[in-house]
């Protein structure tokens, strides 16, 4: 975002507006943390702000301050549609293409004529927004919201509620601060969030230490299905719909499972394949180490994308054919996998 855009946006935000803040479909910690953090900041500026996400999200995020005010488009589409049509300004956070909202919500946004503001850290953003703050080098959109507040000259408005939500987003998207995009600046931001009331140990416990027995049973099945391809430095996990149902699967239960495959010695590429009979697809999450780009793999082969080391996609093949196809493309990445 250049100086002229910042000046123009400051002018827009200088008077009370009706604002909608939107996160992507299947929201994760960064989507919820960044939207709640930004919405609280905008409310402190005197704006009328609502947060809308396309659908539900995991239970381990529902303790976050402001969670009770989030509207879900899938269950309140009429109300959400009215709010969007009346909005003076729409912020889209943690995604950079409107199709990430799902077709129903995308169709509503396509018809709006108010300005959009994008704050996002994924690669290759679409150009739908009047104001675009896009930085793929950032580890999380929540960290970008902090920098956005600084650009606007409003860091003095940082409080415990904003700090807590942004901390959740940074922590979850950085793998608890271990991923390569976690920089010294990230740690300085996090230190400031702690100074402003983010209770780091309590937050970590609330997100990561509330596992159900069923989730642990499902993890056992996932690890039992783990397969390693040493010649391609690759490991993958699969979970069928039957296995999910047997463990009373809830949204968010497979969060982080793919990282177990990535933690294996000498593995630089990890995948998890999760069957969704409802959507008639295999959902795919990809992770990597070093400079091997799973974003490239997801975009080229699985209708997805993301970051260099974390991406997602889908397959309309059945599970067996999806895995066979995945294995078949690995030789074309052999040199990159060996040199990562």
Structure description:
The protein is an alpha/beta fold and 340 residues long. It has helices at residues 3-12, 29-44, 77-86, 103-110, 141-151, 160-173, 184-195, 200-208, 213-224, 241-246, 257-262, 294-301, 319-329, 334-339, and strands spanning 18-22, 48-53, 71-72, 89-93, 116-120, 131-134, 227-229, 234-239, 269-276, 281-288, 305-306, 310-315. The mean pLDDT is 96. It has 14 helices and twelve strands. The strands form two sheets. A six-stranded parallel sheet has the order 3-2-1-4-5-6, sandwiched between helices. It has a six-stranded mixed sheet with strand order 7-8-9-10-12-11.
Name some characteristics of this structure.
inorganic pyrophosphatase (n-terminal core), 2 domains, 6-stranded parallel beta sheet, alpha/beta, Diaminopimelate Epimerase, Chain A, domain 1
> What would you say the CATH architecture of the largest domain is?
Alpha-Beta Complex
C-alpha geometry: globular
Largest sheet: 6 strands, parallel
Terminal CA distance reads 32 Å
Order of helices and strands: HEHEEHEHEEHHHHHEEHHEEHEEHH
Would you identify the CATH H-level superfamily of the largest domain? inorganic pyrophosphatase (n-terminal core)
Strand share of the residues? 15-25%
Based on helices, strands and strand pairing, what is the structural class? alpha/beta
Poorly predicted residue ranges: none
């Amino acid at each position: 975002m250049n100086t002229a855009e910042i000046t123009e946006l400051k002018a827009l935000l200088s008077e009370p507006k009706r604002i909608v803040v939107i996160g992507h479909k299947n929201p994760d910690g960064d989507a919820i943390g960044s939207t709640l953090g930004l919405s609280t900041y905008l409310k402190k500026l005197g704006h009328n702000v609502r947060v809308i996400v396309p659908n539900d999200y995991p239970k381990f995020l529902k303790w976050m301050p402001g969670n009770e005010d989030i509207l879900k488009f899938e269950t309140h589409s009429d109300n959400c549609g009215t709010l969007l049509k009346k909005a003076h300004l729409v912020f889209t956070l943690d995604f950079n293409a409107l199709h990430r909202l799902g077709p129903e919500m995308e169709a509503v946004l396509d018809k709006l004529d108010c300005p959009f503001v994008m704050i996002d850290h994924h690669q290759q953003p679409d150009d739908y927004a009047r104001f675009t703050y896009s930085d793929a080098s950032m580890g999380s959109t929540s960290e970008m919201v902090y920098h956005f507040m600084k650009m606007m000259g409003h860091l003095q408005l940082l409080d415990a509620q904003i700090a807590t939500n942004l901390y959740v987003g940074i922590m979850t998207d950085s793998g608890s601060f271990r991923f390569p995009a976690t920089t010294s600046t990230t740690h300085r931001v996090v230190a400031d969030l702690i100074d402003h009331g983010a209770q780091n140990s309590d937050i970590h416990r609330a997100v990561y230490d509330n596992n159900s027995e069923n989730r642990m049973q499902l993890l056992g099945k996932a690890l039992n299905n783990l397969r390693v391809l040493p010649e391609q430095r690759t490991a993958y996990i699969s979970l069928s719909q039957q296995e999910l149902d047997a463990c009373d699967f809830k949204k968010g239960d497979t969060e982080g499972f793919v990282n177990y495959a990535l933690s294996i010695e000498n593995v630089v590429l990890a995948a998890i394949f999760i069957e969704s009979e409802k959507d008639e697809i295999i959902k795919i999450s990809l992770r990597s180490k070093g400079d091997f780009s799973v974003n490239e793999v997801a975009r080229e082969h699985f209708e997805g994308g993301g970051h260099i080391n974390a991406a997602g996609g889908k397959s309309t093949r059945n599970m067996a054919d999806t895995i066979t196809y995945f294995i078949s493309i690995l030789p074309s990445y052999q040199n990159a996998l060996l040199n990562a």
